[in-house]
Amino acid sequence: MALYARWHCKDPSCNNYDKHCFVDASNDRKHLSIDAKDASRWNRAIGNGLATMGAPSESQRAILVKKNAPAQKKAKDAVNTPAKPDKHVHIHINRAKHRRNNSSESADSEPTAKSRKRGPVPSSPVASDSDPEVELEGYIDYLIEQIPSQKDLLLAAKEKLLAEALDLPGIRILDNFTWARLDIPLGIGLRLKRKVKIYTKGYE
């Protein structure tokens, strides 16, 4: 694939070395890793005039920045965190007292064994920190790739939805009256509502 050849990572200091990275010139030349899904979306955007071989669309660039942020933070923390010195703890044991305590605690050995069998307490799920604006931008780009003839109508609808601070779950519950109030053509509104379920399933 030409896009892979263009963005083959040749920087040995990069965690994604010898794979594929978009070097973001507008973001201190940070390396943003590209997977097969990113490359496919980028190629479609090029075909629709929304991106070039040298740069993705703004909405996809935002998705790449967000996707790579945790890995970059982890690498930065690893470099900046100094190694902790080893701690030596000296323990003095009173042997006579230790023997007495041992005999008195033997009766409690069964509960202790049971407690060792207990598994760890499950943690709560991590809350999603998705940016609704970035998600909406990506969704509109996806629809434009599907139906480029309605690009102008979809871009106009995007601006009106952003003005209302609507996210993708919110679009799914809009009724015909609300589409009319937003001055978005009913056909575009119904398509936005119908396709959002298909789009979001691809990112679960």
Description:
There is one protein chain. The protein has about 200 residues and is mostly helical. It has 2 domains: about 1-80, no CATH class; about 130-200. About 55% of the residues lie in helices and about 5% in strands. It is built from 10 helices and 2 strands, in the order αββααααααααα. The chain has helices at about 1-5, 35-45, 60-80, 95-105, 110-115, 130-145, 150-165, 170, 175-180, 185-200; strands at about 20-25, 30-35. The protein has a two-stranded antiparallel sheet. A hairpin with a 5-residue loop joins β1 (about 20-25) and β2 (about 30-35). The longest helix is centred in the middle third of the chain and has 23 residues, at about 60-80. The two termini are about 25 Å apart.
Helix/strand structural class? mainly alpha
Task: Provide the spatial order of strands within the biggest beta sheet.
Answer: 1-2
Our estimate of the beta-strand percent is under 5%
Question: What does the overall shape look like?
Answer: elongated
Low-pLDDT stretches: 109-128
Count of β-strands: 2
What tags apply to this protein structure?
elongated; 2 domains; mainly alpha; single chain; 204 residues; two-stranded antiparallel ribbon
Summarize, please:
The protein contains 10 helices and 2 strands, in the order αββααααααααα. With 204 residues, the protein is mainly alpha-helical. It is elongated and about 60 Å long.
